[in-house]
Amino acid sequence: MTGKILVTGALGNVGSEVVRLLLASGADIRVADRSLEKIRACFGETVDAVVFDFQDRNTYPAAFTGVDTLFLMRPPQISDVRNIMFPALDAARGVGVRHVVFLSLIGIEQAKFVPHYKVEEYLVHSPMTWTFLRCSFFMQNLNTTHRQEIRERSEIFVPTGRARTSFIDVRDIAAVAALALQQPGHENKAYDLTGGEALDYWQAAGVLSEVLGRTITYRNPSPVQFLIRHMRQGTPFIFALVMTGLYLSTRNGMAEPVTGEVERLTGRKPRTFRQYVQDYASVWS
Length: 285
Prior knowledge:
With about 280 residues, the protein is of the alpha/beta class. The chain contains twelve helices and nine strands. Helix 1 (about 15-25) crosses helix 7 (about 170-180), helix 4 packs parallel to helix 5 and helix 9 runs antiparallel to helix 10 (about 235-250).
C-alpha cells in the first residue's frame, strides 16, 4: 500500500497502538478522533490530526481528502451503522479512499445481530478493497470496561459461564493492522485473530489473582443480571444489549477457537494473558 493512511478511533485501545506503530515506521498518516486536544496530548503537536465524528458530516472532508487507506473502527456507542457509518464510508469512497482495514469480531458469521456484520457486508459489496481483522475479545477490555469491578470489587462480572475465550492483546491486533495498512497482499482477506491460548474466566481470574497478589473472583452472572447491572450503571440500553449479546455468543463457544494468524502474519507469537496482566498490573492497584 502507498499514500496517506487515516486512522479513525485513534484514541481507542487499538487505534492508539496502530498510530504508534505507523508513526514508528515512518508512514504518512492522519490521525482522527473527536478531540484534537487529546490527540495532540497523546501523539504530539506535529502529527497530522483532524477532528472526526461519524455523526457530524462536516468533519468528513478534512478527514478523508487525500487519503488512500483507512483504518476503520466502529465507535461502541454507534449501533445504527446504516445511517451513521455508511454515509461516512460513501464519502470516503467518493474522494478516493481505495482500501479499508476494518476492526471486526471473530465468529461474525454466527453473530449477524451485531453492527460489525452490517459493516462487513457493506464493504464486501463496495468498490473499495478491504481487510477484516476478526478479533477475539481484547485483553484490554479488562483494564477499560471492567477496570472498576476488578480494582474496586475484586471481581469479574461477565455472563460467559464455562466457555473459554482466546483473549488477544490489542498490541498484537495493531501489529497485524499496521501490516495490512502498509503492505500489499491483504486485499479482500479476513483474518481471525486470537491469542495463543483459550481461558475460561475462572482461569483468567486466577492469573489476575496471582499477579496482583489478591483474590479476584469470577462471579459468572446470568445474562439478565449482567444487563441489569450495566443499565443501573448508566450504560445506554442498546449498547448494554449488544454487550450482552456478544457475551452470549462467547457463552456459546464463539470465542474459543485459537488460530495461528498473529504468528503467521507477524512472525512472532502473540502475547500471553499473564504477560498482559503483568504489563497492566498498576491499572488495578
